[in-house]
């Protein structure tokens, strides 16, 4: 589809909304009106009033939308946001008549819907009023509105438990035994990069020691640790022992309230590794089947069967883990609503404390066939999520955090469900940007959150393991700036 911007340069906003509603389109910006499918997004000013308008033609049919932009009394940044929202909403109004049904998230395109709801409540709205704004201004469905308000409430509760000097740590291990076909993480297989694991671990332990010294100097307290990846349990038991010892020896962990390790792939889990983790004080592990159907697991490139998940889960319980998360993905190749329901039922039968239901995200740069296939999955994914969202509450799970990614099949979301009192603190604080999180390892993005103003500053580590190892002597610089800058 071609698109034209008139009177504004909100290219990102316009493209984001068009792809949110028409995910299979390839967008091309043009300067003049042309035949064929086109969107014209304009910002006009008349008698001091701004108005965002859109006209969309698809298959010879045309629809339009227009929204006044209220900018009175706004500072420059807030004005830009208001214009961006109006541009998006006008495009939404013009495109929706072409769709069989409106998206469940309406015109909301952001990654963190609960943060938006929380902001409304913090600015004086009641939860009911915040819900009404989501429904009427953003056209969010009643079910997604309820999920959002629940997640916002959990975030507000946990927010009360964060002191001004509390921070969390993320430690990344970007290695996996094989690559899942849908993977969008920076993760190398052991076959490709196994030789890098040792030097990577050595560099990481160095970064841990340097970061710990900075954290001590800055007077910060570590509230939670999350070792993710990749698949951290790709490391051997001895390497895991070295990693956890480096953390325990370097940081003061006396205020630690949660310690998670992603033991994502059951084919990497052994009783010995679980023992090492347990002895190191890890309380929460994530064992991620994604599906309990062997044919689906084979189709997505996992080198394990559903029976391995059952074995790993049992071993984790035997090792004493009382907080286990299990991830599933709706929309995987070869999965059907019936087999997905079987996966959900099997997990409920195991009774882990957390079950996280993801929706397949199409990789950035995926080809058109992938995008079209994922878009065609819309109906299937909708049925899968409907099943999960009814079965989980009946089994005693409640939603506690959610986020969206771009290019998700059907424009849906990822939702963390938990038994009461087992919310993952790190997941909530990270997703809702409640506190400073220092990220160690390749691809780590540290964020300093100013809890008074909401201002966020970032410092990025090199993305790939080799680059990271080569940058060993300057890894602490970004974190030093975050911890000690005056802003
Ligand atoms: S286990 Fe996770 S990080 Fe590893 S390849 Fe699969 S999706 Fe990617």
How would you summarize what this structure contains?
By secondary structure, the chain is α/β, with parallel strands linked by helices. The chain has helices spanning 11-21, 76-95, 113-122, 127-136, 142-159, 190-193, 197-217, 237-250, 271-279, 294-299, 306-318, 337-350, 368-376, 378-394, 425-431, 465-470, 476-484, and strands at residues 2-6, 28-29, 38-46, 49-58, 61-69, 166-173, 175-176, 188-189, 221-229, 258-262, 284-286, 323-330, 354-359, 398-403, 414-418, 436-440, 445-449, 456-460. The protein folds into two domains: 1-99, Maf protein (Alpha-Beta Complex); 161-472, Transcription Regulator spoIIAA, CATH 3.30.750.200.
Number of strand elements: 18
With strands numbered from the N-terminus, the spatial order across the biggest sheet is: 14-15-13-12-11-10-9-6-16
Could you tell me how far the N terminus lies from the C terminus, measured between alpha carbons in angstroms?
A: 43 Å
Which architecture name of the largest domain does CATH use? 2-Layer Sandwich
- The figure for the number of domains is 2
Low-confidence stretches: none
The CATH class of the largest domain turns out to be: Alpha Beta
């Amino acid at each position: 589809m071609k698109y034209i911007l008139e009177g504004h340069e909100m290219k990102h906003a316009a493209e984001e909304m068009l792809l949110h509603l028409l995910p299979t389109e390839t967008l091309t910006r043009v300067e003049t009106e042309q035949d064929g499918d086109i969107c014209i997004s304009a910002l006009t000013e008349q008698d001091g009033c701004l108005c965002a308008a859109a006209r969309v033609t698809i298959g010879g049919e045309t629809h339009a939308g227009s929204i006044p932009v209220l900018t009175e009394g706004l500072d420059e940044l807030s004005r830009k946001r208001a214009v961006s929202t109006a541009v998006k909403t006008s495009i939404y109004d013009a495109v929706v008549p072409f769709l069989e049904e409106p998206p469940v998230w309406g015109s909301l395109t952001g990654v963190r819907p609960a943060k938006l709801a929380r902001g409304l409540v913090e600015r004086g709205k009641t939860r009911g009023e915040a819900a009404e704004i989501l429904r009427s201004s953003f056209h969010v469905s009643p079910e997604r509105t309820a999920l959002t308000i629940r997640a916002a409430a959990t975030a507000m509760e946990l927010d009360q438990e964060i002191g001004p000097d509390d921070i969390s740590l993320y430690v990344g291990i970007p290695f996996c035994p094989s690559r899942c076909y849908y993977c969008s993480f920076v993760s190398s297989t052991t076959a490709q990069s196994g030789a890098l694991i040792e030097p990577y671990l050595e560099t990481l332990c160095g970064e841990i020691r340097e970061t710990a010294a900075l954290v001590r100097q800055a007077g910060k307290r570590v509230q939670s640790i999350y070792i993710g990846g990749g698949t951290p349990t790709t490391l051997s038991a001895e390497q895991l022992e070295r990693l956890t010892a480096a953390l325990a020896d370097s940081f003061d962990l006396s205020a630690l309230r949660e310690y998670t390790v992603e033991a994502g792939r059951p084919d990497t889990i052994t009783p010995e590794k679980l023992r090492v983790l347990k002895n190191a004080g890890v309380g929460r592990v994530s064992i991620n089947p994604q599906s309990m159907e062997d044919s689906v697991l084979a189709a997505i490139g996992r080198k394990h069967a559903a029976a391995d998940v059952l074995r790993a889960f049992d071993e984790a319980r035997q090792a004493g883990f009382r907080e286990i998360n299990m991830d599933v993905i709706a929309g995987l190749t070869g999965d059907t609503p019936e087999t997905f329901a079987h996966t959900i039922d099997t997990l409920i039968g195991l009774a882990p404390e957390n079950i996280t239901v993801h929706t397949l995200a199409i990789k950035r740069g995926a080809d058109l066939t992938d995008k079209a296939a994922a878009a065609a999955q819309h109906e299937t994914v909708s049925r899968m999520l409907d099943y999960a969202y009814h079965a989980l509450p009946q089994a005693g799970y409640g939603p506690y955090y959610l986020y969206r990614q771009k290019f998700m099949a059907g424009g849906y979301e990822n939702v963390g469900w938990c038994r009461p009192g087992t919310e993952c603190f790190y997941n909530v604080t990270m997703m809702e940007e409640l506190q400073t999180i220092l990220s160690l390892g390749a691809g780590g993005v540290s964020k300093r959150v100013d809890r008074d103003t909401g201002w966020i500053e970032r410092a990025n580590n090199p993305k790939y393991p080799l680059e990271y190892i080569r940058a060993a002597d300057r890894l602490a610089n970004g974190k030093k700036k975050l911890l000690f800058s005056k802003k």
